[in-house]
């Protein structure tokens, strides 16, 4: 029996963690497979280490995407729209980088905390899908 969902783990070389990987198992007819972010947590503090996180998701077909990041109070702090067929909205594996900064209001880098990434995919003809992931900023 196949367990659908997100499976992730760390890759170790000796005693040191050298990477993080994620595997997503979903039903074959899903438009959007559950997104993951790596590294998670990340630390956007300009020290050159883990200053950004990459939101990784898979689309069964090209689709218009709205990517939202919410703070713990439900406020949208970052938003990005990607048109179907553009980089980040093509069939297959896609990646979008987030630097931990708010999209507007001149807030700069957001404070430590849990943020919710929500991706809405619309392939037209009534085919829509929603994916969610938690992202932690820890500076």
TrEMBL record:
InterPro entries: Secre_tail
One Pfam family hit: CHU_C
Protein name: FlgD Ig-like domain-containing protein
Lineage: Bacteria, Bacillati, Candidatus Margulisiibacteriota, Candidatus Termititenacia, Candidatus Termititenacales
